[in-house]
């Protein structure tokens, strides 16, 4: 079997001391970031990008470090959901519903360990899903020409806002803003400068890493400053964890739930624009409808803890599929991971699987390893992480801000980039207040140039005929999906979103 | 009201973007599409979505009172000063000052804020510079 020999090669790459160490470090940092309210997967990974560069890592080790952080954050988010009733990051919000009641009943330990197992099952199955589905998607993607790629990028932008935003106009605004920012710099095809206003620093374009760290990390600092939310939410509370093993009967009762929601979460993750928050939301809703005969969901039902955790971890794995196979990320964190790959001069997409199989399979093998590390870390050592909840934001946020500055300064060594980053931080704060999603902005700055190049290539090939964009059945299909994906939330999305947004951790949170 | 202002601002932004797009000098060797077309499409989307935002505003967001806005403005000023003074003061001093300010504004006492600042600065210096070998800004004292 081709797949298994590839996977074996991947394990040969992942099983070096350096890569294992990076996976361990990533899992630990990820769990910490997931657990701390205010730091989620996307800004956690964003802050650590410069670290990956300063270590001088190659693409594979850098990706191993950062995806371990990503998986780890998905595990860590549940800890403060269960103990404090405050989600550590957005995907963990549904875990509050049954996790906190369980903790109040004195079953905090069971809830933590059960959700750890559910996270493991979700992530494990999703990694298999990634192995099986990504190569199939690559086969389809190889049929894509420039016109189809242009349609695919449009699809990504049009569906991205569908779930993450309450207002489609605002997500369209965000996407256009991001694309507009990507236009700054020298035009790659004709060499004329655009939107540089004579500023030499802008000829290279805006560095998307600067934009990401500013929008995601610094804006968080401003939000905390605004609310003067300097105290730890855990202050003055004592946690009684209790036994750290779920009873076998509980595991058995939850097994069908975990399997179903892993599948559902994975599918939600693969869909563009959905991401882990939606994964956990629909997993919880479906399980509630399916098995909640006695009306125990919401009062501390173990299945209500297992469902969203399996769902969001599976969605995290699923979201890697379009990012790796098509080069089009479907969620905030995978957009940040794409930025890492682009910064390392690796273009994800179908060619990645043939040109850099070591990156893909090494990453997949590392995901399996990281997942076992996380299971080991999150059940016996969960007490350590609960103590981290005591770190107050008045200590944490200065560290976040300064690490962001150091990282960006370390990459470029220029004060100009720091100024741009502060500008993005302020902009991110304002846009979050206005409920404009940030992820389309990032995606726009990342994909803007590729999108334009595909547009121009397609039309140039066809001698300036713009109709070439809708000339093949494949591209027409992509446009239909894109337009449906954009209009559907306007028609039916309000109800779902209203329910999802009822439980958000902080105002205008970034998402996953 | 915020959304209406925001929408109008967006339309102006789109207008400015379109004007600068028209101002792009085209090279005589150009492809069939040229460097202006895609920016103009973006400007159109920007203008359209801004118009929708202005015409159908969401409920008013919760804006902080003037004091809290001033708080953020102060933090921005400190960060800008930090970016400018970093090469003059050196990494350790500049970072300690900036982190101490942020910690203080987030509610630490003066002593606690100072400790946060120094701890953050020295901690980052040790991990990133001494252990990982990242070159940080050098001040008059070499750190």
Automatic annotation (TrEMBL), chain A:
It comes from the Bacteria. Residues 20-443 form the DUF112 domain. The chain crosses the membrane at residues 12-35, 47-71, 111-134, 140-160, 172-188, 208-225, 263-284, 323-347, 359-379, 399-422, 476-494. Keywords: Membrane, Transmembrane, Transmembrane helix. The keyword Membrane applies. The keyword Protease does not apply. Pfam families: TctA. This is Tripartite tricarboxylate transporter TctA.
UniProtKB/TrEMBL annotation, chain B:
Keywords: Membrane, Transmembrane, Transmembrane helix. Pfam families: TctB. The chain crosses the membrane at residues 33-54, 114-137. InterPro entries: DUF1468 (IPR009936). Residues 7-136 form the DUF1468 domain. This is Tripartite tricarboxylate transporter TctB family protein. It comes from Meridianimarinicoccus roseus.
């Amino acid at each position: 079997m081709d797949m298994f020999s590839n996977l074996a090669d991947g394990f040969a790459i992942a099983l070096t001391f350096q890569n294992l160490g990076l996976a361990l470090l990533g899992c630990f940092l990820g769990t910490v970031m997931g657990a701390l309210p205010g730091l989620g997967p996307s800004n956690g990974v964003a802050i650590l990008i410069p670290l990956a560069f300063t270590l001088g890592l190659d693409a594979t080790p850098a990706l191993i470090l950062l995806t371990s952080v990503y998986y780890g954050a998905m595990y860590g988010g549940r800890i403060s959901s269960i103990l404090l009733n405050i989600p550590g990051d957005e995907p963990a919000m549904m875990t509050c519903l049954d996790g906190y009641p369980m903790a109040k009943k004195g079953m905090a330990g069971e809830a933590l360990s059960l959700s750890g197992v559910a996270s493991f099952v979700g992530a494990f199955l999703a990694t298999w899903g990634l192995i099986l589905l990504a190569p199939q998607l690559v086969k389809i993607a190889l049929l894509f020409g420039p016109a189809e790629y242009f349609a695919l990028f449009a699809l990504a932008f049009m569906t991205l806002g569908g779930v993450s935003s309450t207002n489609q106009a605002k997500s369209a605004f965000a996407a256009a803003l991001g694309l507009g920012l990507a236009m700054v710099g020298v035009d790659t095809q004709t060499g004329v400068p655009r939107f540089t206003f004579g500023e030499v620093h802008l000829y290279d374009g805006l560095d998307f890493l600067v934009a990401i760290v500013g929008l995601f990390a610094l804006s968080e600092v401003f939000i905390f400053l605004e609310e003067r939310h300097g105290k730890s939410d855990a202050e003055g509370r004592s946690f009684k964890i209790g036994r750290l093993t779920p009873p076998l009967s509980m595991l058995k009762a939850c097994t069908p739930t975990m399997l179903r929601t892993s599948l559902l979460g994975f599918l939600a993750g693969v869909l563009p624009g959905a991401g882990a928050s939606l994964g956990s939301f629909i997993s919880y809703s479906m399980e509630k409808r399916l098995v909640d005969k006695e009306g125990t969901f919401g009062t501390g039902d173990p299945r209500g803890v297992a469902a969203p955790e399996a769902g969001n971890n599976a969605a995290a794995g699923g979201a890697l599929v379009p990012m790796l196979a098509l080069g089009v990320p479907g969620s905030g964190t995978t957009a940040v991971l794409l930025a890492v790959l682009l910064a390392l001069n690796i273009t994800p997409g179908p060619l990645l699987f043939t040109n850099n199989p070591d990156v893909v399979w090494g990453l997949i093998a590392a995901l399996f390893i990281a997942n076992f590390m996380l299971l080991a870390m999150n059940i016996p050592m969960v007490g350590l992480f609960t103590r981290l909840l005591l770190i107050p934001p008045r200590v944490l946020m200065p560290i976040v801000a300064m690490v962001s500055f150091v990282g960006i300064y370390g990459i470029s060594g220029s004060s100009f980039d720091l100024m741009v980053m502060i500008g993005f931080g302020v902009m991110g704060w304002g846009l979050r207040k206005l409920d404009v999603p940030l992820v389309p902005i990032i995606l726009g700055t990342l994909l803007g140039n590729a999108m334009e190049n595909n547009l121009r290539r397609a039309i140039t090939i066809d001698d300036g005929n713009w109709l070439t964009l809708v000339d093949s059945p494949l591209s027409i299909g992509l446009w239909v999906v894109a337009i449906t994906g954009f209009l559907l939330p306007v028609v039916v999305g309000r109800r779902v979103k209203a329910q999802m947004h009822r439980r958000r951790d902080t105002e205008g949170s970034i998402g996953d | 009201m915020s959304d209406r202002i925001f929408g109008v601002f967006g339309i102006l932004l789109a207008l400015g973007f379109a004007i600068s797009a028209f101002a792009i000098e085209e090279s005589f060797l150009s492809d069939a599409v040229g460097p202006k077309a895609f920016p103009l499409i973006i400007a159109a989307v920007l203008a359209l979505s801004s118009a929708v935002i202005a015409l159908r505003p969401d409920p008013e967001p919760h804006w902080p009172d003037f004091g809290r806005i001033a708080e953020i403005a102060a933090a921005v000023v400190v960060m800008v000063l930090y970016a400018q003074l970093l090469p003059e003061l050196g990494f350790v001093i500049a970072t300690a000052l900036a982190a101490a300010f942020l910690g203080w504004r987030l509610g630490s006492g003066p002593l606690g804020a100072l400790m946060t600042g120094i701890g953050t600065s020295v901690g980052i210096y040790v991990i990133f510079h001494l252990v990982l070998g990242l070159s940080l800004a050098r001040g008059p004292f070499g750190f």
